[in-house]
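ok trying again, last paste got cut off:
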Amino acid sequence: MLPAAALVDLVGRTRWAVCRFVALAVGYLGCESLGLAASFALWLWLGPGRGRSPDRYLEANFRLQLRWARALLTLARRCYGLRLELDLAEVGDRGVLVFSRHASLVDALLPTVLVSGHAGTRLRFILKRELLLDPCMDVVGQRLPNVFVARGTADAKLEAESIRRLTRGLGARQGVVIFPEGTRFSEQRRAEAIERVRASGDTARLSRVSGFRHVLPPRSRGTLALLDAAPHAGVLFLAHHGLESAGRLVSILRGGLIGRRLRVRSWLVPAHEVPRPHDARLAWLDGEWARIDAWLETCERERLG
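nice, full thing came through this time. structure:
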């Protein structure tokens, strides 16, 4: 396979994009195989019915998840020569809700690597059910206190109950991750999302989000339900720039990631600064998302200038 990929790269002068993609795919399969083997070993040694502490089993799976995510991100960085630049807020010992931008197939790894890995915070995730197609995510992800939701579910009561269950017992150095946009950014999705706000008749919100250029308006239902369920937790906003060309496999295959500068920035809003009334809270959320949009605009100008 690699010789054929090299031939395609030589003919197309693609900066070895196809070879890099093959290396990434092989490395990914290797990580999956090792992850599954390790998860099976953990189950044999610490799993239910083995007479071991459930907390010890949970901790071992958290560590396995962190190592798996680190390995995949390191693999992507080395295959594509990504330069990582971090500007991260201190989380400390508090419980946090992590609101992360979503623009690519890769950025779901960032909270685990940069919040769990750097701050030691044990994270729980609200993720789309399609991620269960990944074998390691299916096995290890379902051992941990995560929620996998069907995209576009109309059952608001079930969604709210899942979120309440996820935040139960949330304490120091623990957090919940949600991607408020609900799906990866694209120009078409941005236009459709703004049109939905327009159709809702909420003119105040339309004026806040109609100028967004690089992000989607946050979906309010799940995000606000999470804030309601964990009023004691601070909110960590996680923004990143440089993975936009990894939104689809075809973009990665064409080499859009090669040599990109991956910039990650986060900031923390203490719990007491988060508004309580629904309308004020939604306006605050849109304002923080506008802050992400403005930072991304600055990053784009620096990249192009």
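cool. Residues 17-46 form the longest helix (30 residues). The chain has a mean pLDDT of 91.
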